[in-house]
Structure formats: structure tokens, C-alpha cells
Amino acid sequence: MGTSMSSSLLDLMTLKRADWSILKEIAKKIGEQNPKSCFECTKCTSGCPAAEFLEMYPHNIVCAVREGLAEEIINSDVIWRCALCLKCKERCPQEVAPSDLIIALRNIATDRGVGVPEDLNSVLNSIMEIGYIHPPMKAFSRRLRKTYTREELGLKVLKGPKDMDAFREALMAAFEE
Amino acid sequence: MGSDGLRYALYLGCMIANEEYAYEMSTREIMRELGVELVDLEGESCCGSPIRSLNTRLWLYLAARNLSLAERTGLDVLCLCSGCFESLLEAKHFLENNEALKKWVNEALSLEGLEYTGRCEVKHLVQVLHDDLGVERLREHVKKELKGLKLASHPGCHLLRPSKVLRADDPEDPRKLDELIEASGAEAIDYPEKLDCCGAGLLLMKPEGTMSFAGTKLKTLAAREVDGLVTVCPACHVVFDKRQGAISRQVGVDKRIPIIYYPQLLGLAFGIEPERLGIHLNSSPVEQILSKI
To answer: Same domain for A79 and A18?
Structure first.
């Protein structure tokens, strides 16, 4: 933890050889940011509020991917511990955006069906079903010991997408490449 | 005191549409008072932010879909949720720089007869109140100055970053929400933990992370003896308000801090009935604020 991986071309834990082909896949997911421009100033790590939960600091993740060792990270749950506060993206002097790299690695993990948190899958299912992350909930007043629907609070009832079939078809198309 | 005919397309997003009703109620109340017209986005859906981690194209499609609904109104979009605000603007920026994905998005949208061009502007509530209306205009409507209230602002991550794309406020020293708080007559304190994240982004993946982020912030706020924390995002608000009891117990804080949405605060200064602002729906002890004004 916390040591630089920039000089290693072989993952010493698994003796796996470096593989840079994944960089292309990453670029397709997040666009122009390039982990190769990282010079390890560690500005991302010094401002990271999730650093205490991470087995690898943000700059280590960038370095490992740059050195062709993305596979282990995709399979590890370190990528699912970022809150996406975007401080690292804001502060990176090289516009590498570790948070975008983490999103790309999560996308790749999802494509492969590894390690996706169950609650995120439920959210996706709900969007497919009704267009929102969850159905309308009743608001609870702790003080008045009463619950309220949108309507009871004078708010309009929302209907979501008009043509759910077309909406779902478009969502499904996102998964076909 | 007219509003020069200001009109916006109101985008709610999942949390406001389906659980955080007080934020919408209080926003509608203050906008009515200010003479700002809000046009509903019929058929809106999730902005895509929560599932961006699963699939970039899914996120882009959902964001562009809502923007294309807004384009039909010819109005700027008003976002109340900072998560949606960041998601819609980043998607817009992404699609500006990626013709192939923009083409794909439009093929997917054509199934619903929609088209995305990228021509509409997206603004957060803080920008509309601070930049479009202005603090002076708000002050003209204040009937009851909230003097003596000492409040901390929580601008939240996705109102500020990435600043190159969002351009909402200074990302390292945001002042707009504080100036808005001061328009109500209350005092906005400066505090070093202002930029600290609520941790809502970890709720679906590692909730103990959320507890730790929010717990640390609640602890420092308790020590600073503020009368409340002012929020402008339903995700931040749910963490600090609805989950405060559990989080505070976990980190050993006895004091409970009132959490209030900015439009609820401004509505009180406008003299609007608390119930119309959904104050009774806040879980934190907001009656402490009511008793001080």
C-alpha cells in the first residue's frame, strides 16, 4: 500500500506480464484522459476522502494501469470504493482524472460481469422498469407521525417516459457494441 | 418587482421526483414569490448518473434524453440536484467532443421520436438564484430577516467539480451559497470542512464509507456550534438529514444538527408558511431553527 508501481513491468503478486491493450478499451469509455501523462505528484491521493478505505491510492491505480497492470484492479473491489467526489479530477495538473479512469475500469468490470455491487444492478433494473432509480416513496413526517404522497403535498403525479417499450429498447442498445 | 419573465425547464431527477418532496415544494414556493416560471419536463427520467459506473453509453443516452426533452421547450434547464447537474453537463461536454457517440445517442433517441442537439443550457438552483436573479432581488422579497442564525453551507461536490465544465462557482473557495444564505439575514460561517464530501456516492457500494464521510463532517459541525447546515442537493440532504441519527450514534456525536434545504430557508425569510415549504418532512431537528427566528 502506498508504494509506487511505476517501475514494475511484472505484477510481483501474480507474475502476470504487462498488458497495454486495455488502454484502448479505457480510452473508448472515457475519452481523452491518458494515464500515461501522470507524473505521480500525488495531488489526487492527498485530497482523496476515500483514501483510508483504498488498498491502492488513486495515483497507484493510475500508475498500475499505465504500466499495463489493469487486470488485477478490474477484478479487485478497490474500484468500487470511490465516492466520485471528483476532487482528483479537479486537481490533477495533467488532466488524467483518476475518477474517470475508475469509471472506465468499473465499466469494463461490468462488461465482464465481475464484482458489480448488487444495489447498482437493482438501480439499473428499476430504471429499465419505470425510468427512475426507485418508485415514488411516501414522505414521512417524524413530527406529525404522518406519511404523504406527492399528491397529498400538492405536487403533480409523475408518469415517466411515455413510450416505455421504446425507452427500454434504447437502454438495451447501450449494451450492444 | 417583476422577474423580467424568467422561465426555466425544471428537471427533478430520481430523488426529488420520488422521495425528497420538500426540496421541490420549497423551490416552487420561492419561485412563485420571485415571479419565476417553471415549466415541467413531461416524461423525464433518471439522468444516468448512478449507472454511469456500469456503462458510459447508458449514462450518455439517459442524460441526452432529458436534455432533448428540455430542448423542445427552448428554455434553460434548472437542476435542483447537484448529481443531475454534473451528470447532464458532463454528458453534454462529452458529446460535444465525440461525434460518433452523439450519432449513436441520436439513433437510440429516435426510437422515442427525440433528438439531441446540445443547444440547451443547464443551470443549478444556486446559479439561477445567485447569477440570474441576484442577491439584491432576493433581499427585496425578504419579509422576516433571519437575524441571529449562524449557518454552515454545504455546497457539495457536484455543484463545483469539474469546474472547467460546470463553471458554477470557485471550486476551492465557493462563496455563492454563503451569499445566498446571507440574503436571508442569517450569518454564513466560513469553516475549513466546507468542501468535505457527504459520501452519498458510496451508498450503493460501501455504505460504511458514507457513514465515515458524513460522520466526520457532522462531528466538526457539532463542535463549531452552528444552528444548521444548508443543503442544495437531495443526495447530500438525505445523508445528513434522514440518516443523521444513525451516523451520529456511530461516530459518537450526541448533538443533532438541523439540516435545511436552501429554498426552505429563503422561504422562511420570505414569510412563507413552514408547512408549505415541507419543513415538517425534515427528519433533523429543524424546529430549533423555527424557534430562533
So the answer is: yes
**A2 part of a folded domain:** no
Q: What is the mean pLDDT of chain A?
A: 89
In a domain, A1, yes or no: no
Task: CATH number of the domain at A53, please.
Answer: 1.10.1060.10
**Residues in A 17-76 with any Cβ partner in B closer than 8 A:** 29-32, 49-50, 52-53
Question: What CA dihedral angle connects B239, B69, B42 and B129, to 10 degrees?
Answer: 50
**Same-domain pairing of A92 and A161:** no
Give CA–CA dist A93/B145, Å, rounded.
44
Of A112, A134, A155, which residue constitutes the final position of a domain?
A112
A-B Cβ pairs (cutoff 8 Å, strict): 180
**pLDDT over 80 at B183, yes or no:** yes
Look up the domain containing A163 and give its range: 118-175
With 90 as the cut, is the pLDDT of residue B136 above it? Answer: yes
Same domain, A132 and A101: no
Report pLDDT digits (tens) over A4-22.
444 445 566 666 777 888 8
Confidence at residue A26, expressed as pLDDT on a 0 to 100 scale: 87
What does DSSP assign to residue B23? H
Q: How many separate domains does chain A show?
A: 2
Nine-digit cell string for B184: 436571508
Q: Chain B partners of A139 at a C-beta cutoff of 8 Å?
A: 19, 21-22, 278, 281
Instruction: Classify residue A5: in a domain, yes or no.
Output: no
Mean pLDDT of the B173-182 span: 98
Residues A143 and A92 grouped into a single domain:
no
At residue A31, the pLDDT reads: 73
- Each residue's pLDDT tens digit, B64-120: 999 999 999 999 999 999 999 999 999 999 999 999 999 999 999 999 999 999 999
Helix, strand, coil percent content, chain B, rounded in steps of 5: 55, 10, 35
Is residue A85 assigned to a domain? yes
E-state strands within B101-213 = 122-124, 150-154, 187-189
Residue A155 has its nearest CB partner, among B24, B280, B287, at B24
- Does the pLDDT at position B2 exceed 60? no
Whether residues A85 and A26 share a domain: the answer is: yes
Cα A165 from Cα A168, distance rounded (Å): 5
